[in-house]
Specification:
about 350 residues, alpha/beta, eight-stranded parallel β-barrel, EC 3.1.4.46, glycerophosphodiester phosphodiesterase, GP_PDE_dom, glycerophosphodiester phosphodiesterase activity, GDPD
């Protein structure tokens, strides 16, 4: 996804937002079960299900047709996800297009890739490079043109929250001025078009996460981490303990971790809760209902999933509001056996051993 073109002179200053931004509404309550409290504390009173890149990430080499159903990060994917009882969709802003970075493309060049809005136009072929180095043609059952962040705000179901992931290259050391420029451009679009839509930011880039929080206090900022499942030059990315430390030092509201990192180190969830941090997860295991249920028992606040239909159905069966209703934030498990504290402790000790092999 690309930004609407914004000239640097039009970007708001660090402590400014457009006059039409409804800060009084944004800063006190988010719709659909998410609230921002005093002092920036972020409270999630229900278990969230978030659609990964909309209706689900495309895995082009997968034999599972569901992973190639709808073009990810597209308006079609976002609105398809909105037909299910999810709270947010997650999508990427910035990224790469084959050998050129999106930041090196003009808006017109970016929109020339893939299918075009005008039937008479032929778009450039869109390819994807897999982690093992293969180059694949981006073939999906339901294709859709690339879109801008502004178009997402204008064309996606307004009751659906946006988890905006800020994408940066893992192998580039960014200068603060560049990060500030990119983030300010994104914030301008968000403040101009968010209205009363629930918004949260997330990023793997530690400095970007700190800057988003510094440049605005309206929307919560979550730090994305692999939870120690991969090692990077920047040590802040290499463990859940480092993620918690970064959040506390920078005033961030929460963590989004690869679920394997959580199962290998379940004690980090307790640490984050003691620090008043919200905790979300992502990863392939989040497409397994039983893994999602265990996370609910652990105190995880929500999951980012690819199989939106299957997981929302499973969550509705396994986790139901208490008789007092959702307003008090209490949930009860249903349709699955309850675990005692001793059984859950044993399960949490067993899972790290299982996923190590």
């Amino acid at each position: 996804m690309a930004l609407k073109a914004v000239h640097v002179s039009d970007v708001p200053n660090l402590d400014q937002v457009p006059d039409n931004a409804s800060l009084s509404l944004y800063s006190t309550r988010f719709p659909r079960g998410v609230e921002m409290g005093r002092g920036g504390a972020y409270r999630i009173p229900k278990f969230l299900v978030i659609g990964h890149r909309g209706h689900g990430m495309n895995v082009l080499q997968s034999s599972d047709k569901r992973m190639r159903a709808i073009k990810e990060n597209s308006i079609a994917s976002f609105n398809a996800a909105s037909s299910f009882p999810i709270d947010f969709i997650e999508f990427d802003v910035q990224g790469t297009v084959f050998e050129r970075r999106i930041t090196e493309l003009s808006l017109a060049e970016f929109l020339c890739y893939g299918p075009q809005s005008e039937p008479s136009k032929q778009g450039n072929t869109l390819l994807r490079k897999t982690k093992d180095g293969k180059i694949l043609k981006w073939d999906v059952d339901t294709d859709d043109p690339l879109c801008t962040l502004q178009q997402a705000f204008q064309q996606v179901e307004p009751s659906l929250g946006f988890n905006i992931e800020l994408k940066f290259d893992d192998h580039i050391v960014y200068q603060p001025d560049y990060l500030i420029h990119v983030i300010q451009a994104i914030l301008q679009v968000v403040f101009e078009h968010a209205k009363d839509r629930a918004i949260l930011f997330s990023t793997f880039q530690p400095d970007a996460a700190l800057l988003v929080r510094k440049l605005q206090t309206t929307f919560p900022v979550f730090f994305l981490t692999n939870g120690g499942t991969e090692i990077y030059y920047d040590v802040r990315r290499n463990s859940l303990e480092e993620a918690i430390k970064l959040c506390l030092e920078g005033g961030l509201q929460g963590i989004v971790s690869e679920v394997k990192g959580v199962f290998r180190n379940p004690g980090a969830v307790t640490q984050s809760k003691e620090a008043n941090l919200s905790f979300l997860t992502y990863g392939k295991l989040n497409n397994v209902p039983e893994a999602v249920y265990v996370q609910h028992l652990m105190g995880i606040d929500g999951v980012i999933v690819d199989l939106v239909r299957e997981i929302t159905e499973a969550v509705s069966e396994m986790i139901k509001p208490s008789e007092a209703g959702e307003e008090d934030g209490k949930l009860q498990a249903a349709a699955k056996p309850q675990f005692s504290e001793r059984e859950l402790a044993f399960l949490l000790k067993l899972i790290p051993e299982l996923i190590q092999h």
